[in-house]
Each structure stands twice: as structure tokens, then as C-alpha cells.
Design goal:
The structure holds 4 protein chains of 4 kinds. Chain C is mainly alpha-helical. Chain C is built from 13 helices and no strands. Chain C has one domain: ABC transporter involved in vitamin B12 uptake, BtuC. In chain D, α3 packs across α5 and α3 runs parallel beside α6. Classes of the chains: A mainly alpha, B alpha/beta, C mainly alpha, D alpha/beta.
Chain lengths: 293, 234, 322, 237
């Protein structure tokens, strides 16, 4: 039981990271029906911006976080304007290929610029402490990541539920034409969605830097895929679904590597994916919508 | 107030509107009637800027609005109740109404308009915390009308407000339309329910395959043999 | 117009041109004029053509977005290698085993997943592709993550060329028939197709299995050319690679798939001289082509017998996908 | 859909009318298997076809057109019809892949049949054109040609006159009568254009709010009070 609780705690911080990335996938999908394969790589860029602002500029972890989030917000908007917007009326598959292209570009341009070398997050930026509570081992990293992720998610919920911009985002994703009739600018709303989603990914990137200590230009691929599975698990396009899906994926993954084989860790993610798609393709929170004839 | 001048609109290869012209005078109810696929919805979408013109112009209060971005049209004073209601299904009734006032900044005015909508549609007030998707068809239609009213429009475009509603509700909706007009909003009404529409309209146009084939006062059209023929098959 | 010659002149011309290409390359190889570098690229070209043309059957003609083609390639590669290398059987048996195993995998995966549509299907096939890879990684019998080394090089030019042509012919024959039209109707409008009496599920599965089968064949050829296979070669990036060829060529154009496969192989080879920036240029090319020509090089048009026919003044019935 | 009963005789030309949103297209979707009914049965030629897959229902002899034309847009006019002929393909998959003489024979046969259908609808000159490039009226005709090519015993037409001008509608009326006679089939028709419905249908059902509110000959329907109320609004001038 204690072992189980320990795994659960380990899974929560990883799950929080997945949830943050998954939110970006789901928001972008909700609004332009595109699986933004470059999203994991935006997370990677966020990690690097965070790393450099700590290692080079000597900023503290919070400043680094904000800097990363802002940079990636801009990056996300730029990507949308340059690569996705021209394809808004093309086939979905053309947009998908473009997203793959953007993903490869981010990965290999970073690789070219910064070499494949692993960077180690400076220890001093976040001194590790471990606490023993009733036989459970908890580190300040876990608490920090979890708390920060929850704060960001609450902030996001607030934006989406309460602000005018958030409501416009929901309106556009529900019915674009009706939203235009309300006077909502679709272009602007899409840009904002990319900005918010990308900045959440950047925060996740910095957290991964803290969590694993090392970062590299291809680090976005696997967590990106898993977060994507999380988004599908919760029901792609559904924001609370992405959060729940993210936590479930994180917990499941630590459970599997804790109890079973690490070799099958990645397969489990995809096993979950297949299972959910075959049983309930619209995800845990999704509703079925039939085709109109 | 509104003048549609010889517009041509295409859907891909299909020539949907062929040099269509019509006019809506301030303070009136004008109705556009015709069969399915004749081009009624296309006309409204063109006015709202959702479809682009190949030829022609759309004048609103003296200026051409056919090049204006669709999301700016509502700001000029034209709001639309789209066909099939198109409420934001997972947003609450209140949020839907707020979206109607998206471009407005006058908090007080919005508050009072919200109160007006709730007085007009008490059922919406009861359900304002409910999501729009859970409302009945009639309630959704009222919400769509309320949402359009929240923009405080000078001209309201209504696309088949009676569609799929039980006869009693249809009557209620038409009473509401009359009332909205009586309070100073000009209305362009697209309908399939011809007699109902003609009974409240001042002027009417009959559209057939993208062209106006008949126009006149509502009275003239009600008594026209051609209208009877088209709708009664006699 | 109704009359159709069984052996039109254009067909004879095609055969002559292909025979010419084959003989020329064979001569260059035998005489040693074509060095190893060119031979490798030529072989990759053939393998890529088979992969692109077979994926195009699924994605382009049937309209079912599959992102797991590398998985079937892996199944074929491993099945063939088990037969030829571990059990020391002849190459032809290895090829048959590859087709059989990959086709079977296609059936097992296709039946449940093809109920899904659009993005969901794409995601599911991506997941299955990765699962295949992870499973292969965890079987010690076939070398686990390290894979299998020392595979004999059976994939000679005659095999590669012959099987590439075979793949194209079979798929073109399928598409230009009543069955092919049924398959295309699924892409065009599934509901309407079903209401025209076509069992759309069957045709989706049929296209998926045939596509998988040829991916397996390509995998077998790959394994027996490059000496070594390991699971990580067949990850989702490989699937993306194949998809890129199909989309660049134009979804639903076999000609496009062939041209794009040749183009991408040459591009990859050319970029090899700039190893550092190779993938960046590849990515930029991809985005630029998609933004300026989202329908791909050929759209869904073919450059084939009809074009030949027009040049030589023959009249034929319009092909299924004009 | 609340409650609904109706029947159609062999060779009958039956009309189904009612205001927008009354549930007419839903009826068609239920008959052709696109939707499954929660309750009740659909019997066709003495066989229960409730809940069968749409393609099986088509193979039993029911074909339809759609309210918003659903052609196979990006392929040729000829191919649209050839696809409808597929369910009786004269050659197998093996012959297809190996290109045996039987395959070519079969293709010739299919082409001949397909062109016959195009000819009936005056579309033979357009055989090589992309379906979506046809003008609206011709797309409508092609859709009917395609439906007929499946050799139905019951043809269901969903608003065939939508978007047609009176001239085209009149031509369509003649065409429908002619098809019924020449192909010896039953036709079920949804339509808004009353002149068409009254002009060709032998019997009419009126649907409103998911229920049949009237049934009878065109003349009876025209005078029926409830129909006038539901369909035309209350105050009939």
C-alpha cells in the first residue's frame, strides 16, 4: 500500500507535466481541428529558453519560467501564421503534414544550432530537498511541479470560463460561423489559442528540465506523444479531459515502470490509446456526434 | 436602409445568386420566401459577409458593406439569427447572450438589454445557468433571437425561425418578431412558411433558383395566384 | 470507342521502356560503372516506391489516413529475415512470408480500427505501428532492441526492379477496375457509397491489407539489402517519411507517389553532403511545398497510359481516376 | 420522430410532404439504414429490413438520392454510374489483378450499361467530366441516374426539385413519370415544390412534427384543413 502511494505521488508530478502539454494539443485541436505535431517541440524550445535564462542570464526559476512562456507564446503564434493559416481551407492531411514538417524543423534546427549535446539544468537553480512523510518520500521538485501545474490549470480555467477572450475561444471552437456573426475575429482567437497553448507547453518544458535534470533537442518527441495520448484519452478538444487524461497517463506510466518492465512503458501508453479508441473513440469525456445525411 | 444591388454569388461551380436585388426600408418587415435551395440562406449569408460577392453591391445606410470583414458587420448594426439556430451548445444560456453583445463595451446598456431579453423570454431567465444544448427547439430559437438582440441591431436578418417548431410555437415566434419590429428594429425575414411570413410583413420578395421572380406588398402577394400556385401546387 | 485492344500499342511501349531501363542499369552494375553510393540510392528508391505506392492505396485512394505503415514494413522485414537468416530458407520463401505476415497484421489491425474515421484512425494506426515496434523490441529470439545483423544481401537489382514494377502493376490494375472504383467511392463519400450497395467496410479492409502486404514486401527487400534490421528503424518517423512521399506526390495519384518517392530519395541523398543541416532543409521543403501546393505535385491526376495514348493518338476509356 | 406508420404499394408513386424540420429526411434515413429505429419495423417486399446495413438494403432493391446532392465529386460522371453498377460486378478480384480477357469483357459490359443510363438522362456527352463541374440541374439528374443503376425496385427521391427552376421542374416531372413506367418501380418522393408533388404523386402523406397528419389523394390533401394549417400557416388567403 505504501509502495502504491509512493508510485502515485511520483506519478502526480509527471502527470501534471503531461496534462499541461495535453492542454495545448486539445485547445488547438478544438479550435482548428489540427493535431499539432509540433507541440511537443514547442515544449522543448521552452525548456531551452528556461535553461539559457538560468544558465546564461542567471535568472531565478520563476523569471526563467515566465521568459520561456512568453517566448513560446510568440513562437506558437508565428508557427500558426506562417505554416498553418495558409492551409486553413486545405485538406486536413496537408495541414497534418505541415505540422510534421514544423516539428522536424524545430527539432533539427535546434540540433543544428545547439548540437545534440545534453544540457544539465543547473543544480543551483533548484536545490533538491527530500522530505520523509509517514514513510513516503516526497521531494520539493514534485511539490513545485504539481503546485505550479495546478495553478496554471486554474488560471487557464479562469480565462476560458470567465473572460471575454475565453468565451470567444469556446464560441469559435463550437461554431465558427455563428461566432463570426457575433463579431468575433476568428484569426485573432486562433492566435490567442496558440499563444496560450504554447506557453503552457513552455512551462511544461521547464518542469521537465527540473524533473529529469537534462534536456536535449529531441526531448519533445516522446513526452509530446504521451501528452497527445492523454488528450485523446480525455477526449480531444475537451479541456478538462486533457487534464484528467494527463494525470492518468503520468500515474499509469510510473505504475508500470514501478511494478513492471520499463521496456513496455512506452507500449503501455499506446495500448491505452488503442483501447480507448476502440472502446470509446471520443475519449472519456467525449460525446458521440453522428454524421448528418 | 439596406439595398442589395444585383449580386452574383457562387458556391464552387454553382451559380447560387444571379443578379439578385432587393431593398429593405427602415422600420419595415421584409420577407423573402421561396422553396428549399432557391437561395434564401445564401442571400442572408452574403449580407452578413459570410459569402463573398462575384458582382454587385450591398449598401447599408448608404455605404457599401460588401467588402467589410464578416466579423465587423455586426458592429455596423446588422445581426443575424442563423438557420437551424446555431446556439453555442455547451455554453450556458447567459453566456450565449453575452456572446451576442461581444463587440459592445457599454456595460450598463448590456445589463439593461439582458433584462429586456429576460422579460421578453422568461423561460430563458429560468434556464440561464443551463447549457444551450439542453434546451428544447423552441427555447433554442428564442435564445438565438435573444442573442441577436443583444447586439442591439438596427437590422435583424432572420433565417427560417419557424423551422421544425410545432404550430403553436411558430405563432409565438411570429408574435415576437412583430413585437421586435414594433420597437424599432428593421427585419429581413427568410421563410418557408409563406403565409405566416406574409401575414406580418410589409413587403415581400419571392426567390426561385437564385433570382427574384416576384415582389410587392405582402397583401399583393397573399392574393397572387402565382404564390398560391407555388405553395399549394394548384 | 467501346472497342478495346487487348494489347494496346502504348502497353508495348511501356514494356520496352521498362526493359530498357532495367537492362541499362543492370549493365552499369555488372560493368562496375555504377558505384556503391548510386546503387544504395537506387535500391532505396525502389523500396520507397513500393512503400509510397502501397500507402497511397490506403491514404490516397481509399481516403483512410494511416500513420502506421512502418509497422507493417517491420513485420515484413522480420518475417523474411526469420525465414532466410534464422531458418536459412531461400529468399523467395522469405518474401512470401513477409507478404503473408504483413498482410495478416494488416487484417488484424484493420478490422477493428477501420471503424474509426479521420484523425482517430490516424492516431490508432500510429499507435499500432508503435506497438508493433515495441513488441519486436521485446522478443529476444529476434535480437530485441539490437535487432538482427548479418542478413545476406539477396535484394539484387532484378529483384528490386521486378518487385517494384510488380507492386505498381498490381495496384494500378486494382484501382482501374470495378473494385478500384468501389474503393475510390469510399474516399469520395462513404455514406453515398454504402447506399449504392457497396460494403464499405470490406473495401477499406481490402485496401488496408493489400497496402500492408506490399509494405511487408518492401520491408523484406530493405532487410536483405542493408544487412541489418532493428526495431528503432521502423518507428513513427519512418511512417511519416512514407506519408510525406504520398502527400508530396498527390493523394490518389500512383504516378505522383512514384515521382515523389524518387524525389525524396534523391533529396535525402543530395542533402547527405550537408549532414548538419540536412533535416532542417528537409523540413523546410516539406512546409513550403505544403503551403504552396497542398494538393501535392500531381493532385489526383495520373500520367500514364492515357497520356501515352494521347501522344500516340489512341483512344481509351477514361480511367477510374482521371 | 414520435410515431409513424405508412405503407407503399408495388409500383406506386407516393409523396411525402411537410414543413422543414418535420422529419421527412429522417424517414428516408430510417428506410435506407443510415439511422436505426428505436422501435418499430420496416418491411420491404415481405422481408424485415429493420436494422440492416445500408449496403444490404441497397442490394435488396432500395436506392435513393439526397437532399444535398451527394455525388462522388472528384471523379468522372461515368465513374459515378459505374460505381453504382459495382454490386453486380461481372468479374472477380483475381481476374482484376491478372487482367484476364474476362476482365476486359466485363469492363466493356459495365461501360455499355453505364453509358445507357447516362443516355437516358441526357448526360452521355458529359461522361468524361468531373461530377462536381456539372451545372446543378445535371448533378441532380446524374444522382438519379446513379441511383437507378443499382437496379432498385423502390427509388427514393429526397427533394429532387430543390434548386431547380419551373422549367427544369416540369422536365423532372416528366422524367419521374417516365422512369416509373419504364423501369417498373415504385417511387417515394419528398418534396417542397408542391406543383411537383401534386403533379406526379398518386397518393400523399403529410408529416408534421414527426407524425402523419394526413393521407390521401392529391386533391384531398389540397383541401385538408390540418394540412393547410401545418404547411401554409394558419390564415390561408
Amino acid at each position: 500500500m505504501l509502495e502504491f502511494l509512493q508510485q502515485l505521488i511520483n506519478g502526480l508530478s509527471l502527470g501534471a507535466i503531461y496534462a499541461l502539454i495535453a492542454l495545448g494539443y486539445t485547445m488547438v485541436y478544438g479550435i482548428i481541428m489540427l493535431i499539432n505535431f509540433a507541440h511537443g517541440d514547442i515544449m522543448m524550445v521552452g525548456a531551452y529558453v528556461g535553461f539559457f535564462s538560468i544558465a546564461v542570464l542567471g535568472s531565478n526559476i520563476f523569471a526563467a519560467l515566465i521568459f520561456a512562456m512568453l517566448s513560446c507564446a510568440v513562437l506558437g503564434v508565428l508557427i500558426e501564421k506562417i505554416a498553418y493559416k495558409p492551409l486553413r481551407n486545405s485538406s486536413r492531411i496537408a495541414a497534418l503534414i505541415t505540422a510534421i514538417g514544423v516539428s522536424l524543423f524545430l527539432e533539427y534546427f535546434t540540433l543544428f544550432l545547439l548540437t545534440p549535446q545534453q544540457r544539465v539544468f543547473p543544480e543551483a537553480a533548484f536545490p533538491l530537498h527530500k522530505y520523509q512523510i509517514g514513510g513516503l518520500l516526497i521531494s520539493n521538485k514534485d511539490i513545485f511541479i504539481f503546485a505550479l501545474a495546478v495553478i496554471l490549470m486554474i488560471a487557464l480555467q479562469y480565462i476560458i470560463k470567465r473572460t471575454r477572450t475565453g468565451k470567444a475561444m469556446r464560441a469559435v471552437s463550437l461554431d465558427r460561423e455563428a461566432a463570426i456573426l457575433m463579431g468575433i475575429s476568428v484569426d485573432r482567437t486562433i492566435s490567442i489559442t496558440f499563444a496560450i497553448g504554447s506557453s503552457l507547453a513552455a512551462a511544461a518544458g521547464v518542469m521537465i528540465g527540473i524533473y529529469y535534470n537534462t534536456i536535449n533537442p529531441l526531448m519533445g518527441i516522446i513526452p509530446g506523444l504521451k501528452a497527445f495520448v492523454a488528450a485523446v484519452l480525455g477526449g480531444i478538444g475537451i479541456i478538462p479531459g486533457a487534464m484528467v487524461g494527463g494525470f492518468l497517463m503520468g500515474i499509469l506510466e510510473t505504475m508500470v515502470s514501478g511494478y513492471g518492465s520499463t521496456l513496455y512503458r512506452d507500449a503501455v501508453a499506446f495500448g491505452v490509446l488503442i483501447l480507448i479508441l476502440l472502446v470509446k473513440p471520443t475519449g472519456l469525456f467525449g460525446k458521440d456526434t453522428g454524421e448528418k445525411v | 436602409m439596406l439595398e442589395v444591388k444585383g449580386i452574383d454569388v457562387y458556391y464552387g461551380a454553382i451559380h447560387a445568386l444571379k443578379g439578385l436585388s432587393l431593398e429593405v426600408e427602415e422600420g419595415s418587415i421584409v420577407t423573402l420566401i421561396g422553396a428549399n435551395g432557391a437561395g434564401k440562406t445564401t442571400t442572408l449569408k452574403s449580407i452578413s459577409g459570410l459569402l463573398r460577392l462575384r458582382n454587385g453591391a450591398i449598401m447599408f445606410k448608404g455605404s457599401d458593406i460588401s467588402k467589410v470583414a464578416p466579423e465587423k458587420i455586426v458592429g455596423l448594426g446588422i445581426s443575424q439569427v442563423p438557420e437551424g439556430r446555431r446556439v453555442f451548445s455547451t455554453m450556458t444560456v447567459l453566456e450565449n447572450l453575452e456572446m451576442g453583445a461581444y463587440l459592445r463595451k457599454d456595460k450598463k446598456g448590456i445589463e439593461s438589454d439582458l433584462e429586456n431579453v429576460f422579460t421578453r423570454f422568461p423561460r430563458l431567465k429560468e434556464r440561464r445557468k443551463q447549457t444551450a444544448g439542453t434546451l428544447s427547439g423552441g427555447e433554442q430559437q428564442m435564445l438565438a433571437i435573444g442573442r441577436a438582440l443583444m447586439a442591439r441591431p438596427e437590422l435583424m436578418l432572420m433565417d427560417e425561425p419557424s423551422m421544425g417548431l410545432a404550430p403553436l410555437l411558430v405563432k409565438e415566434i411570429f408574435e415576437i418578431i412583430k413585437d421586435i419590429n414594433a420597437r424599432g428594429t428593421t427585419i429581413l425575414l427568410v421563410e418557408q412558411n409563406a403565409n405566416m411570413a406574409l401575414s406580418i410583413a410589409n413587403r415581400a420578395y419571392v426567390i426561385e433558383t437564385g433570382e427574384i421572380v416576384l415582389e410587392g406588398t405582402a397583401e399583393q402577394l397573399i392574393n397572387s395566384e402565382e404564390v398560391k400556385k407555388a405553395y399549394l401546387g394548384g | 470507342m467501346e472497342k478495346k485492344r487487348f494489347v494496346p500499342r502504348s502497353f508495348l511501349i511501356e514494356v520496352l521502356v521498362l526493359a530498357g531501363i532495367f537492362t541499362l542499369v543492370q549493365y552499369l552494375i555488372v560493368s562496375g560503372l555504377l558505384n556503391e553510393y548510386y546503387q544504395i540510392n537506387l535500391s532505396s528508391m525502389c523500396i520507397n516506391i513500393i512503400l509510397a505506392v502501397s500507402l497511397n492505396l490506403i491514404n490516397g485512394f481509399t481516403g483512410q489516413l494511416s500513420l502506421g505503415h512502418a509497422g507493417f514494413m517491420a513485420v515484413g522485414a522480420y518475417a523474411a529475415v526469420v525465414v532466410t537468416t534464422i531458418y536459412s530458407q531461400p529468399f523467395i520463401l522469405g518474401l512470401l512470408a513477409a507478404c503473408l505476415a504483413a498482410g495478416l497484421a494488416g487484417l488484424i489491425i484493420g478490422v477493428p480500427t477501420l471503424r474509426l474515421k479521420g484523425d482517430y484512425l490516424a492516431i490508432a494506426t500510429l499507435g499500432f505501428g508503435e506497438i508493433i515496434r515495441v513488441i519486436l523490441q521485446n522478443i529476444d529470439f529476434i535480437g530485441g532492441p539490437a535487432g538482427i545483423l548479418g542478413i545476406p544481401r539477396y535484394s539484387t537489382w532484378p529483384w528490386l526492379f521486378g518487385l517494384t514494377i510488380f507492386t505498381i502493376v498490381i495496384i494500378v490494375n486494382l484501382i482501374n477496375s470495378s473494385y478500384g472504383r468501389a474503393i475510390i467511392s469510399v474516399r469520395e463519400d462513404e455514406v453515398a457509397s454504402e447506399l449504392m450497395g457497396i460494403n464499405t467496410t470490406n473495401y477499406k479492409v481490402l485496401a488496408f491489407v493489400i497496402g500492408a502486404l506490399f509494405a511487408g514486401l518492401a520491408g523484406a527487400l530493405y532487410a536483405h539489402y542493408f544487412y541489418i534490421i532493428k526495431p528503432s528503424t521502423f518507428n513513427f518517423l519512418k511512417s511519416f517519411d512514407i506519408l510525406v512521399m504520398v502527400v508530396l506526390g498527390g493523394l490518389g495519384s500512383t504516378t505522383g507517389a512514384v515521382i515523389a518517392a524518387i524525389f525524396v530519395t534523391m533529396l535525402t541523398a543530395a542533402l547527405q553532403t550537408f549532414p548538419a543541416i540536412r533535416m532542417v532543409l528537409y523540413a523546410v521543403t516539406l512546409v513550403v511545398v505544403m503551403v504552396y501546393r497542398p494538393q501535392g505535385l500531381m493532385g489526383n491526376k495520373e500520367w500514364g497510359r492515357r497520356t501515352w495514348g494521347r501522344i500516340w493518338g489512341e483512344k481509351n476509356e477514361p480511367l477510374a481516376n482521371k | 420522430m414520435l410515431d409513424f406508420n405508412f405503407h407503399l404499394e408495388d409500383g406506386e408513386l407516393l409523396g411525402l410532404i411537410g414543413p422543414n424540420g418535420a422529419g421527412k429526411t429522417t424517414v428516408f434515413n430510417l428506410i435506407t439504414g443510415v439511422y436505426k429505429p428505436d422501435e418499430g419495423n420496416i418491411i420491404f417486399s415481405g422481408r424485415d429490413i429493420t436494422g440492416l446495413a445500408p449496403y444490404t438494403i441497397c442490394q435488396q432493391g432500395i436506392a435513393r438520392t439526397f437532399q444535398n446532392i451527394r455525388l462522388f465529386k472528384d471523379i468522372s460522371v461515368l465513374d459515378n454510374v459505374r460505381i453504382a453498377l459495382h454490386k453486380d460486378a461481372p468479374y472477380g478480384l483475381l481476374k482484376t489483378l491478372l487482367r484476364t480477357p474476362g476482365f476486359f469483357q466485363g469492363e466493356i459490359e459495365i461501360n455499355k450499361k453505364a453509358r445507357e443510363y447516362l443516355q437516358i438522362f441526357n448526360l452521355e456527352d458529359k461522361a468524361g467530366e468531373i461530377a462536381s463541374s456539372l451545372p446543378y440541374g445535371e448533378q441532380r439528374r446524374l444522382e438519379i441516374a446513379r441511383a437507378l443503376a443499382t437496379k432498385p425496385t423502390l427509388l427514393i427521391l429526397d427533394e429532387p426539385a430543390a434548386g431547380m427552376n419551373p422549367n427544369e421542374t416540369r422536365e423532372l416531372m416528366d422524367l419521374i413519370r417516365w422512369i416509373r413506367k419504364d423501369f417498373g418501380l415504385s417511387i417515394l418522393l419528398i418534396e417542397h415544390d408542391m406543383s411537383l408533388v401534386m403533379g406526379v404523386c398518386e397518393r400523399i402523406y403529410v408529416l408534421d412534427y414527426g407524425q402523419v397528419i394526413a393521407e390521401g389523394l392529391p386533391e384531398e390533401i389540397r383541401r385538408n384543413k390540418r394540412v393547410i394549417e401545418a404547411y401554409l400557416g394558419e390564415e390561408v388567403g
